[in-house]
Design a protein that fits this description.
Two copies of one chain form a homodimer. Chain A is an alpha+beta fold and about 375 residues long. In chain A, about 20% of the residues lie in helices and about 30% in strands.
C-alpha cells in the first residue's frame, strides 16, 4: 500500500475500484463494481466487466473476429490448463512462454500472455523498464495484426501505408506497481481509443497471470507522420474508418499528466554528452524507436539512483524526431528541497531533457520520473 | 551457396553431410547419412538421427525424463499443429510465440521453438547478434531447468550451488547462415558435452522451423568460478556426476578455431574509450554477462561496417573477469592487404580487443569476426 500511496501522489491513476465508466457519464448504465482492490489477491471481478464497450460496426469485422475467437477458444482453454500445470512444476520442468494473443471483451481488447525470459531481467532479477516498453510495443503491434489491419511491419494500417504515413508517439505515461521477474507469466491487455482530432491513444494493463494483481499501467498518445516529408499529418478519414470500430470508449488508464515543470533551481544536474544516433538505433521506418529515447534518458540518471531505487512512474513527452547521425545530450535534474536535500528519503524525483548538441539545440524529449527505494532483500538493508 | 563458401573459409564447420559420429570412431556403429544438405530445403534426414548418443545413467533420471516426455508429447503435437495453422494465417490472425521446450533424442538434446518478437529485430528487419546470444543463453538455462538441475537462477547445478560455484564462459564460436526475421519461429536445439578435464561445452543449432534450414551454429566452452574468491575452480566430481548423464558424445558443432592472431601491421584501428561497467551490466551473480562483452566489442566496429555488412561468424575468447566500475576500451582492427585495402570486396575481417583502461591494462576479451556484404534489397544496391 505504500507503493500505491507513492504512485498516486505522483499521478492520479485510474483505478478499477472506481472503474472505467463508473466515474463517467456511462455510470447511469448500471455498471456494478464489487470487491476490486488492485493490491488484493482476492480480486473477484474482472477489470473489463465494468467497461462500457463501444463497437461501431460489428458486421464489418465479423469474419475476422469470429475466426479469431474460435481459435482463441481452442488455444486458450488448452494453454491455460497447460500454463497452470507448468507453473506449479516450473522449477523442475519446462519453462512456459505463452504467446498466443487473442481478442477479448467483444473483440475490443487484445490480450497476450508473455513469459519473462531470463535475459530480460537485470542484476536484481527484475525486468528493466525498456523490456516493459518492448512488450508494450509488441502487443500493440500484435493487436493490429490480429484484427487484420497490419499494413507494414511497424503497425501502419493499409490506408496509412497507401498514404505513406507512420505512427509517431507524442506522450507516454507509465506506472509500475511491481516489476515482473524471470519466468513470471504476465497477462498484457492493450486497447485503442480516440484522443482528440488528430491523435489516437493506446493503453496497456499488465497483470500477474497467476494472482491477477496489476503490475503495470501505461497510456500513450500517437499521431501520424508522412514517411517522406517527416511532417505530421492530419488523421485521414479513411484511417479513422479503419480504426474506429476497434476503439474502446473509456478514459485513459492513467489520467493525463499535465503538470508543468517544477522550478529547477534546487536540483542537481547530471549530463551525458555525445550520444550518437547510429544506424542500429533506427527501426524499419528509419526512425529512432521510442524505447531508444528512454534508454538515452536513463544514460544520465546517476548510477546511485538506478542501483538503489527503481523507476515507479514516468511521463515522457516526445517533441521532435531524432535522425541518424544526430548527436544528443541527455540531462537529468535530481530535484531537491530548498536546502538542496532530497525531499523524501524513500523517493527520488527527476526531470529529464534530451536535446541535440551543437548549433541546433532542439529539444527531442522531456520527461519526469519518480523512483522509489528498492525493497531490501531478506537480511539486507540499503545504506542510502 | 556463396554464404557457405564464405563461412567455411573462415571456420571449418561441422556439417551434417559428414555427420556427428560418422567422422569419428563411432562410425563403425553403422550410422548412415543420406541426402543432407544444409542449404537444401529438401533435407530428408533429421540432424540427430545420425548422432551417437551416450547415456550413462538412464535410471537416475527416468522420473523426470518420462514425465517431461509425456508432457512434451501432448504439447508438441498440439502446438506444432497450431503453429503450422497460425503460420499460414499469421498475417491476419494471432502471432505465435511458442516457447514450450522439451527433451528430444533420448533426452540428451533440449529443443525449444522461439518466435522472434518485433523488438528483437533491427532496421534491416533482422535479429541482432546479441538477440541470438540471448536466446542461446535462455535455452541453455531452460535445458538445465528441464532436467531438474537448476540450483540458481543462472544455471548452477545444486552441487555447484553448495560449493559456491558459477559458470564462466571462456570461448564462444558462432556462424550465422541466415538471421531470423520478425515472426520467424526458430527451432533451437542445445546440448552439453564434456570438454577437457576442467571444462564443459554447450552447443546450439538454430533452424527455421518451417523449412528445417540451418540458421545458426554455435559452440562454447565453460569453466567454473568460485563466487566469493572469483578464482577458477577444478571440475568437482559431484558436479560431473550430476551432469555427465546428460552429455552428448559428439565433436563440437563448429570445429575448434585455434588460429593464431594475424599480423596487425596492415590494419586500420578503431577505438572506443571510456566504456564503464555499471550496475546495469551485471547479472544476478554480480558478474558481467558474456552478451554484454560482445556489445562492447561491437562499440568499436565502424558504423560503415555494421550498416553495410552483417556478422557472418565470430570467435570470442574471454580472458578475465570485468568488474563493476571497471573502465574499458574496445579496439577493432579492420584487416587489409599489403596495400592497405580490403582483401575481399564482399567481406570484412576484423580482430578485436577489449581491455581495461588506466594503469592495469588487463585483456578482458579478444576476438575475430568476419562480416559479409548484405544482400541488396529488391531494386537497391549497396554503394560500398
Amino acid at each position: 500500500m505504500v507503493v500505491m500511496a507513492a504512485t498516486t501522489s505522483f499521478f492520479r491513476i485510474w483505478s478499477p475500484r472506481h472503474g472505467f465508466g463508473c466515474m463517467t457519464s456511462h455510470s447511469k448504465l448500471g455498471c456494478k463494481v464489487e470487491t476490486i482492490d488492485v493490491c488484493d489477491t482476492k480480486t473477484t471481478c474482472d477489470l473489463s466487466s465494468c467497461m462500457q464497450l463501444k463497437r461501431k460496426s460489428d458486421q464489418a469485422t465479423s469474419g475476422v473476429m469470429d475466426w479469431s475467437m474460435f481459435v482463441a477458444a481452442i488455444t486458450t482453454n488448452f494453454l491455460e490448463r497447460e500454463m497452470m500445470f507448468h507453473l506449479k512444476k516450473k522449477s523442475q520442468t519446462t519453462v512456459l512462454d505463452v504467446g498466443l494473443g487473442r481478442l477479448v471483451q467483444d473483440g475490443l481488447i487484445y490480450r497476450q500472455n508473455v513469459c519473462i525470459r531470463s535475459y530480460e531481467t537485470g542484476p536484481d532479477g527484475k525486468t528493466s523498464i525498456e523490456t516493459l516498453m518492448n512488450h508494450m510495443q509488441d502487443t500493440a503491434l500484435n493487436h493490429t495484426k490480429t484484427v487484420g489491419l497490419l499494413g507494414d511491419a511497424l503497425g501502419s494500417t493499409p490506408e496509412m501505408k497507401k498514404k505513406n504515413l507512420v505512427w509517431v508517439v507524442t506522450k507516454m505515461q507509465l506506472v509500475v506497481d511491481r516489476y515482473p521477474t524471470c519466468d513470471d507469466v504476465v497477462q498484457i491487455d492493450t486497447w485503442r481509443a480516440v484522443s482528440g482530432k488528430n491523435s489516437g491513444r493506446t493503453d496497456w494493463l499488465f497483470r500477474d497471470s497467476q494472482t491477477g494483481k496489476i503490475l503495470v499501467r501505461a497510456s500513450s498518445n500517437w499521431v501520424m507522420m508522412n514517411k517522406e516529408t517527416r511532417r505530421l499529418s492530419k488523421y485521414p478519414d479513411e484511417v479513422r474508418a479503419e480504426l474506429e470500430q476497434y476503439y474502446l470508449d473509456t478514459p485513459p488508464i492513467l489520467e493525463d499528466d499535465t503538470k508543468n515543470d517544477m522550478e529547477l533551481d534546487k536540483s542537481v544536474e547530471y549530463v551525458r554528452k555525445g550520444l550518437l544516433a547510429t544506424w542500429k538505433d533506427l527501426d524499419m521506418n528509419q526512425h529512432v524507436n521510442n524505447v531508444r529515447y528512454l534508454g538515452w534518458i536513463l544514460e544520465s540518471v546517476p548510477n546511485q539512483v538506478q542501483e538503489n531505487y527503481e523507476l515507479a512512474s514516468m511521463t515522457l513527452e516526445y517533441r521532435r524526431e531524432c535522425r541518424k547521425d544526430n548527436v544528443l545530450q541527455s540531462q537529468t535534474f535530481v530535484l531537491s528541497n530548498s536546502n538542496g536535500e532530497k525531499v523524501d528519503h524513500n523517493h527520488v524525483d527527476c526531470q529529464h531533457l534530451l536535446q541535440l548538441e551543437g548549433e541546433c539545440k532542439g529539444k527531442i524529449m522531456k520527461g519526469r520520473t519518480r523512483w522509489r527505494l528498492k525493497l531490501a532483500k531478506e537480511g539486507e538493508s540499503w545504506d542510502n
